[in-house]
Amino acid sequence: QELRPRGLDVKQEELGDLVDKEMATTAAAIETAAARIEEMLSKARAGDTGVKLEVNERILGSCTGLMQAIHVLVLASKDLQREIVESGRGAASPKEFYAKNSRWTEGLISASKAVGWGATVMVDAADLVVQGKGTFEELMVCSREIAASTAQLVAASKVKADKDSANLCKLQQASRGVNQATASVVASTKAGKSQVEEKDSMDFSSMTLTQIKRQEMDSQVRVLELENQLQKERQKLGELRKKHYELAGVAEGWEEDGEWIP
């Protein structure tokens, strides 16, 4: 009893109710996140143009795909959870089963919370990116966090599942779907970041003659600096190769004058 996790300050008989509540809360969070993404997409199409619209549509589209994959995962998790309780409780009630297996129940609740929280945070990050106030890196981190949370949910569900369970197979397939959707978000975000940076760095249309001349001089200075750094690095590489050759020769038994040491 002393070693039991104390992550949940609830009575054991309340655990069953809490599992159902958290699963419902997670499902609601996913639906809310999906609705917010759809709203952001509509605003982007109404107010953005060109590269910005293309980038925002790609990122928000991949986020929508991720929300759909998570929704499938949550449903599969609920089906497997119901199967586990029905097959393992015997004559006991579901609440008694959850109380008896309280550590497993707490892990399931924690994993479900993490998935819902991750989805909410990712949508917040996507909203900031679309507005031009957030960073692409934060969105990528959030999507990877969701992948980790779904893996936690699968692991928690799998502990008491029958290895031949059809519902377990569905959950694992849903988990792979989430991973693929996460990879899609990361890929679209990286592509969008590169596209925006390239546009920002090469768009001179709004610059005056004086600004163009200033930029031109700065660019020339930067080129000279880089050429100087490159020359020094090549010299360093040559010295390193020379030293490497000398040390390799000594290791093989050669003196500096070329005489072999028996």
Automatic annotation (TrEMBL):
Domain I/LWEQ span(s) in chain numbering: 7-248
Cellular component GO terms, alphabetical: clathrin-coated vesicle; cortical actin cytoskeleton; presynapse
Keywords tagged on the record: Coiled coil, Cytoplasm
GO molecular function list: actin filament binding; clathrin adaptor activity; clathrin light chain binding; phosphatidylinositol-3,4-bisphosphate binding; phosphatidylinositol-3,5-bisphosphate binding
Superkingdom of source: Eukaryota
Coiled coil feature spans: 214-243
Keyword hit for Lipoprotein: no
Regions that span the bilayer: none
PANTHER family: HUNTINGTIN INTERACTING PROTEIN 1, HUNTINGTIN-INTERACTING PROTEIN 1
InterPro entries listed in its UniProt record: I/LWEQ_dom_sf (IPR035964), ILWEQ_dom (IPR002558), Sla2_fam (IPR030224)
Biological process (GO), any one: clathrin coat assembly
SUPFAM superfamilies (UniProt xref): I/LWEQ domain (SSF109885)
Cell compartment(s), UniProt: Cytoplasm
Main location as per UniProt: cytoplasm
Protein name, UniProt field: HIP1 protein
Gene field: Hip1
Species: Alca torda (Razorbill)
